[in-house]
Amino acid sequence: MIRVTVxxxxxxxxxxxxxxxxxxxxxxxxIAGFLSKEADLxxxxxxxxxxxxxxxQEVLKDTDVMLWWGHHAHREVSDxxxxxxxxxxxxxxxxxxxxxxxxxxxxxxxxxxxxxxxxWREDEKMQRYWVMDLAHPIAQGLGxxxxxxxxxxxxxxxxxxxxxxxxxxxxxxxxxxxxxGCCWNRGQGRVFYFQPGHETYPTYYDPNxxxxxxxxxxxxxxxxxxxxxxxxxxxxxxxxK
Length: 241
Prior knowledge:
A 9-stranded mixed beta sheet has the order 2-1-3-4-9-8-7-5-6. The chain is about 25% helix and about 30% strand. It is globular. By secondary structure, it is α/β, with parallel strands linked by helices. Helix 5 crosses helix 6 (about 105-110). It contains 7 helices and 9 strands; from the N terminus they run βαααβαβαβαβββββα.
């Protein structure tokens, strides 16, 4: 079983009737709902208002892959918890960063750049997501591209390090393109950023988006992680001569 934790700040759904109409139980519940249908996934949720944001040492030790959605409350996330999550990623936990969590503390911490810097526009237009790597595990079964009838427009330049794998590039009718599906290795962990998921649109009910996220969880999961050896060691060969 892959142990999955879906984290969401759970703010919009409580203070916006428009968002609550789309995600009445919260974005985290919608994501956990379709993930829980997969026989190989064991899913829990955590939110900002829980003690330690629901991300205690015990929860993190019991998590193989974490999904992170945030928007308005990035600054409210404890720096201590961010460092705790970052260390788990470096130690082998997978992290999937969704939509406006590009500006989250944890993503900026792991990328080392101003990942909040990009072009954006809410114009309720369609978005087309082109598959850039047809062989990538995250992109299986999608064909050359998929479309969302409505989604927030993001556009380049996106201030991220060069991805290790570029899985998707999106196109918007306004002419923007965006690196909308990116993979990195950080320490022994894997990180995937996936752009769609605006809170007022039913993005997480879309079958293609669900397929991407399920496949991203399996890609990010590492069954066995070999600890780094950093202690003083003896030479493997005779270097006395």
